[in-house]
Amino acid sequence: MKKIAKQEIADQAEVIDEKGVSRRGFLKCGAFLGGSLLVTSQMEWALGMVAKAEAGMLAPGDAYELAKAESIIYGACLQCHTACTIKGKILNGVLVKIDGNPYSAMNMTPHLDYKTDPQEAAKVDGHLCPKGQAGIQSLYDPYRIVKVLKRAGKRGENKWEVVSFDQAVSEIVNGGKLFMHVSGEKSRVVKGLKETYALRDSKVAKAMAADAKAVGKKKMSVADFKAKYAQHLDTLIDPNHPDLGPKNNKFVIQNGRIEHGRKEFSKRWLKDSFGSVNWYEHTSICEQSHHIGYNEMTRKWKDGKWGKGKHHMKPDIYNSKYILYFGTGAFEANFGPTNLARKVTKGLSEGTLKIAVADPRFSKTAAKAQQWLPLKPGTDAALAYGMIRWIIDNKRYDAQYLTAANKAAANAVKETTWSNASHLVKVEKDGPGALLRADEAGVGAQDEFVAMVAGKPAAVNPNDDKIAVVGDLVFSGEVNGIKVKSVFTLLTEMARSKLVAKWGEECGIAETDIARAAKDFTSFGKQAVAELYRGPVQHTNGYYNAQAVILLNVLIGNADWKGGLQAGGGHWHEDGTKKGPYNIKKLYADKVKSFGVTLTREKHKYEDSTLFSGYPAKRCWYPFSGNVYQEIIPSAAMGYPYTIDALMIHKGSPALTTPGANKNIEILQDLKKIPLLFASDIVIGETSMYADYIFPDTAIWERWGTPHATPDLLTAVSKVRQPMVQAMTETVEVFGVKQPMGMEALLLAIAERLNLPNHGKDGFGKDQPLERSDDWFIRMTANLAQGDKPDTQVPAASKEEQEIYAKAHKHLSGYAYDPQRWRKILGDDMFMRTITVLNRGGRFEDDEHAYKGDKVHHQYKGPFNLYAEKVAMAKHPGTGKNFSGLALAEPILDFHGKEVVDAGYDMTLITYKDIVGGQSRTIGNYWAQGRELAENYILMNSQDAKKLGIKDGGQAKILSASNKVGM
Amino acid sequence: MAEQGMLEQMRADLPRALAKPPEQRRWGMIVDIEKCIGCHACTVACKAENKTPRGVDYRFVKTAEDGKYPDVQHYYMPNLCMQCDDAPCVKACKDGSVTKGVDGVVRIDYKKNSGDPHVTAACPYGAMSTDEGEYYTEGTPQREAYEDAATFEYGQKADRKGKIGKNRKCHYCMHRVDAGMLPACVTTCIGEANYFGDLNDPKSLVAQKAKNKGLYVFKADQGTKPITRYLGADAYSCAKCHE
User: Fold this and answer.
1) I need a surface site. Which of A110, A282, A406, B238 has the fewest CB within 10 A?
2) Residues in contact with A32: Cβ distance below 8 Å, sequence separation at least 6, in sequence order
3) Cβ of B169 under 8 Å from any chain A Cβ?
4) Does ipTM exceed 0.90?
């Protein structure tokens, strides 16, 4: 299949401009960047440069303006989701070069001290991957759109008219016969958002939310609910199912690569102001099960409940002696190559680090590995269990670590983390169930667990740092008449359910190779890590695969140790929730409580809803997941749990990135299933081409953001993305303030027309405006300048630094540079401190805080749940059976629990991320994509190719069980 | 981690060299193949730094495959100007615009250069190009301003125009080095695979790496005496990319 390139879409586009003249193609159309006045002036500048440059030559070294702080604005990339800190170099208003930010631990080791003079830092370029370097070509992409496009043909027909921003926003809000000019839609009435915005009273919403939940849990009857809210039933999706929530939920925002900053802004808009629960981002099509694996295995036990866990842990690579990568690596994708690669190559070249890679594909990382384990896709748990069996059989696990049943026991042996390996699990008729409680064993309280200590049951408070409980690892028997087994015993039984060779057969790896990996992994004490990312988890069994790989780490107790697994240095709280002057969780004029089952049924239990009608459920429910991206469009199509009115797609391309994308495209074209569809995009994209309206968005180098740090960084990192160049999108007026069109301006404009709370002149409270994107982000940046603890503010910018700031930003105005407005909002002192943060592109902890003795400085200091009780107690909505508390090595299953066997199709197609590619974002990067083929290609083992008679560079048709026509 | 990182160590080496008269410097680069991960960041950083058009790559990375499944290998090999002591491009150049500098760097004087195709053809490493005047964004809604933006090659702030029709190649980013900065490929490299500095300064990191006995000289049989050399791979694996 040929690549659907933006160029082709643009080439085929037919656009009627504001004068009513229809133009085929893009060349003369004002909707594209080519017609933007601002850029034309930049062009003149560039041509003028010729004359200036020809006039004379400066002294060597002095001529290099890009080495001066006045030419530099620091920001954050988003060519991939790692969002590296970057350094933008600007000549006469044009971003001409992007490099790594030397102040940040992402781009250099050690990074520059925070106090370093920006003039000195100007001469230091940090590392940056090819995608980041090529960002200039995404920013200055000639196919960017700068004006609003409204569909002038059928959805996907690629016929457009340029309409004013005000007209488009007004139509979306008010609805009506919006597409009378399109054949077949003459009389179609589109419901405007003002109708969907049905429940507006925040007090009623709050009361109904609580009672609707009670109805779902059968603690209140539907009849009682209806009687109590008789006057408000018309605001509900279905009064007979009040737990579905208000009609407001029928407006859905589907975000792709949205980042912190915009994320909170947009959520606050939809959930807390408009009152819809249906706000989503992309993570389920990325690597979410990996987050859930970590989360369930690190949930803290608090007040008799399972609390929150960690989502992400990474090796301390510089001190690791052995890393086994499962379906990921350090040189492509992961999180991400700019910050990971140099740490691995240093160790490899100095001989201090050995790596192994378990991946069906021979990746760039595999090319540097001492062992490549080419396992069958999705069988990572089998490989992990083969290793676990070998480790247990050969007693290569850290028994001292595993016997520590609580914090005090861990601390006594110089460990900062502990596990539930010795805790007892009740063995029910259908298998392991809940953890045994101390009251059941007759040895303690209901919120305590039980471990055998020298053969006798003892109560365990996992968080107790005073009384150490050292549990027996192995136990199988009865306690107080209850049949129990220790978690370690369950694990051993699971691992020994198959011989190593048999596990090897399942994953396609020879027994000797598994044994070698297991031996290597257990040969370096705490300085070894089993690392995982997308590869193992993007399957139906992904959660269990993640759990199995994390298990390996727990067996050697490597967390928090130098060279072991660690949770990262974290970040300061830009949302102000610690000690910041602007706590966005509290700054509301009138916070609305959104409620109801989410369209994707995520974060909700099927059993706790009025839709429960036995197993299987009509579609899957996701009690442990959030942001189930691929379910949004199909659920709307099925109308389960309800139909929707409007869908906004922002910075994402489900037509490119979701499984079964072809079906998504069919649904997007269905006017009944998606009655109103609008997109916020920088181009006419593979998905936005199906929209009713496309609102141009700002590019990342033109806008604000506050992305978070990646956990491989040992020191705290808080990034600030700030505009490096003025946005090229058309200027519009919202709340009486001029600003460029972009996602924020679009939501603000809708808020203005709907009279939504929490936006506008008093958006953050009396006389605290939220009228433009910088109103949000300057406050977030000030929160970083303030810090999380008292007396940890950054210093105020010196006079020299203030001058650098002003000179570097002289080509900017309005939302991008408005010192007067910001000074007024923040006050003199805070504004000066904020400049210090802006002059460095964020806040960064100095490198000296990376370690503390033989551990990392920022420690996890928490439990590892080898057995995840919360998971074990939940039911699969398809089969009605309980999930497993212990990792399973199961095949890829469908919703009904049946193994997916595509008879007659013996090859498996996998995807991967090339170092120069970032989904839909990087296709216009000629510098980086130059080496790519013009057609999509498939890599295959040369032996398979030979068998099939396919030659390198040849063409092939691909068929699958679900696509027998092929492509 | 109190120790100085590799980039900062090499940057600290530069002022010592710059304090000396040019004829006492000998700029050199050693590329560590073991640390090259084939990411192409150097290629892109170079293109951005020097605004090279399609068809002109001062630095590019070759990839080669070797072995039989499952014992397979990938090699990545960055190519760039070898700054030869006996440079075929200098010999082939009739207008005197391509010269070997006293500091080791082969330079092109764009004002004199006539873009002789023989000069491009003379390089056995494929490191010399001719700028044919292409623009990546030509034929799109707009030729973008960044493609015409000034660069600072050879210390001259000048836009693209004066380079069209000329021979072009890597110059170790001398404009950056003169400003006390490392070449763009060196700083961007996420594998830290490049060692750069003054080979005449025994204290410099690159000079220490140059002492390595296993340095690979690309096409040594051509007698071009390259300054740029390779570390971390044997002649066998290097040849895989160079075949």
Assistant:
1) A110
2) A10, A26, A142, A143, A144, A145, A146, B141, B142
3) no
4) yes
